[in-house]
Amino acid sequence: MNFSTQANSLNRRQFCRTAAAATAALAVCPLPNIGAAEDTSKKPNWQPRYVLGSSMYGTTALAEILPEVHKTGAEYIDLWPRRHGNQREQVDELGVDRYLEMLAVAKVKTGAISRFDLGPFKLRDELAFAARLRASVVICAGNGPKNLTGAKLKEAVAEFVKKLEPQFAAAEKHGVTIGIENHADNLIDSPDSIRWLAELTAGKPLGIALSPYHLPQDPQLIAKLITDLGDRLSLIYAWEHGAGSKEKLPKEQELTQLPGRGKLDFCPIMAALVKTNFQGFTEIFMHPVPRGIPILPTTAEVTAEINRSREYLAKCSLAAANATATPAE
Known about the structure:
Order of helices and strands: HHEHEHHEHEHHEHEHEHHEH
Strand order of the largest sheet: 1-2-3-4-5-6-7-8
Structural class: alpha/beta
Helix content: 40-55%
Number of strands: 8
Radius of gyration: 19 Å
């Protein structure tokens, strides 16, 4: 039995009844290809290394967010600045020593710092700061000319890499990786641009922060990209386009950006991560409208919603492990 056949054979209707009871009025139960009837006796050897995006809680205080990290299955936090959150600014207000004390009490580590506001060419100070926080990656978008293809795209990516040399020097000095997200309306946005960037930065302290939201919503395409990138993948956002994040929508539609809420089948995506033994971060993610608010009204609700997606992704990983262990029919 192949992976796709197995995933499609799961009892979706039974799972929906169970999930609806557990998640009350917000649950729309569009979990593709996953159900409660799955045999849980086989555990995948690979497990996601979850990092919790602080912006999922809006501008909630770090003192309130840090105890939630382990509740979401994570050991790490990704600090977001304004306009998406303000936890990066909170660290400045607290001071590094106090922040590190809070991490120690919560038994949490800083995994990443998201600095889309700085862009890729102003990261040197932030890379030094990330090292002080013991974060391993600083993430931003790949800025540059848009809508290029073919030879012109490769040339532009090569020029982008050349401009990054001072940032690479700082990243190497501080032992931090620069994570470039594929972001719409930027140079690094398409599968081809991602592949060129990975190829042209071999040996450099740069990794890809892969965002399915900004890619064609084709699970096989995304899975192929994951396998092509291999260990050049530093972080993957468990985030789909759903109904989008640009305009205010009813909450049930807004939440379709989350895995298991929308239409994107994450089973092939998780299977690719299992196959490549992905060692980077997985971040369950979405954007609320407006930016800077929690995705749901209370901290407990945000944590529960993240766990809903995590349970769905766990079933995908389990299906992948079972498919690998089952002889082909």
